[in-house]
Amino acid sequence: MSKSLQAIRGMNDILPEQTPLWRYFESTVARLLDNYGYKQIRMPIVEFTELFKRSIGEVTDIVEKEMYTFEDRNGDSLTLRPEGTAACVRAVLEHGITGGGQTQKLWYIGPMFRHERPQKGRYRQFHQIGCEVFNLDGPDIDAELIVLTWRLWGQLGIRDAVKLELNSLGTSESRGRYREALVEYLSAHLDKLDEDSQRRLKTNPLRVLDTKNADTQAVLVDAPKMADYLDDESRTHFEGLKARLDAAGIPYVINPKLVRGLDYYSKTVFEWVTDKLGAQGTVCAGGRYDGLVEQMGGKPTTGVGFAMGIERLILLLETLEQIPEEISRQVDVYLCAFGEAAELAGLALSEQLRDQLPGLRLQVNAGAGSFKSQFKKADKSGALYALILGDDELAQQVVSVKPLRGQGEQQSIAFDALAAHLATCIVQG
């Protein structure tokens, strides 16, 4: 027997019962970003592999082990995008929309791909919403990005479940001095480092700070601190950011081990983390990348941004039971029609109702069926009300409106009064 078809491991279907919550989350974020003056950009899913090697860094875990890379028919090396910032930078450079110092505040949404070990909250195809801001170099825009995410957590009802962690990586020069000091210190304790940290010490030593190994963490207690190597410019920038967060009343903690997993970050880095999802605690992260545009061939252009993982935030909403009641109900009214004449009248009536009540979620029974079977489908739909249309109702030019969720008695409503009646019922329901 042939093997049954199934999705690739770590690449999941989002089923109909799940999509209302996704749509609610995505529309909430989109509306918020619109209100803050951000414009949406849509980039391709596939890019030239060189883009990510140049931007993320060839010795990062993503480039070394996690990218989906292949050759196309022309022999070009292509990669499914593992993150959005590099693709967004490529787009603004290609189309010249940051030229001449133009400020751009952009956001995007879509799938990303990394060949990781699938687990709860971590997938090989995952979805992100990201923001990128170009040609603004002050701490005020760093603060705005954090403030708007704080507002989002409030709108979603999850503020109490997330914590903001901050750090500054300084400029590339100060980070280079710190890297030398860190390597010197860790090299003196090489035998106490785990195997992965020993490898990173030669390729990307700052990533050792992010280790989860208890023995290596013990070694890091007395390691040099990034704060001691910050240049004056970075220190002033970081103090300005903290002052603005204090003014906005946003709590935070300084995490000197926060380095992020991508090579292009400088100065501000931040993460929103939660302890409600087990090991996968980061739900939104970002920072400043002032040298990335120039590194990718453009003129010196400052940049800062973040990305949030949709799967993890959906999981957090479900875990905290922060799902609006209307999200679980996809139908307001279910129309049951009995007999061909009633079906024809019901079709016309339903379209009139949609004209009069554009927001009404109205499902019309399809496939005919007995009174019992239609009512069973009406109840299963989750609708608040069933509209009943048969020969008796047609003769009287009325519709029987039957509550399905205990909202009172069945009533007969005239055709021309039905829209007004439903508008009142649905609001009250």
TrEMBL record:
GO terms for molecular function: ATP binding; histidine-tRNA ligase activity. One of its GO terms (biological process) is histidyl-tRNA aminoacylation. Keywords: Aminoacyl-tRNA synthetase, ATP-binding, Cytoplasm, Ligase, Nucleotide-binding, Protein biosynthesis. It is found in: Cytoplasm. Its main location: cytoplasm. L-histidine binds at residues 83-85, 114, 128, 132, 260, 264-265. Coiled coil: none annotated. Pfam families: HGTP_anticodon, tRNA-synt_His. It is an enzyme of class 6 (ligase). Its EC number is 6.1.1.21. Residues 1-358 form the Aminoacyl-transfer RNA synthetases class-II family profile domain. One of its GO terms (cellular component) is cytoplasm. It catalyses: tRNA(His) + L-histidine + ATP = L-histidyl-tRNA(His) + AMP + diphosphate + H(+). The keyword Cytoplasm applies. Homodimer. Belongs to the class-II aminoacyl-tRNA synthetase family. NCBIfam families: hisS. This is Histidine--tRNA ligase. It comes from Pseudomonas fluorescens. The gene is hisS.
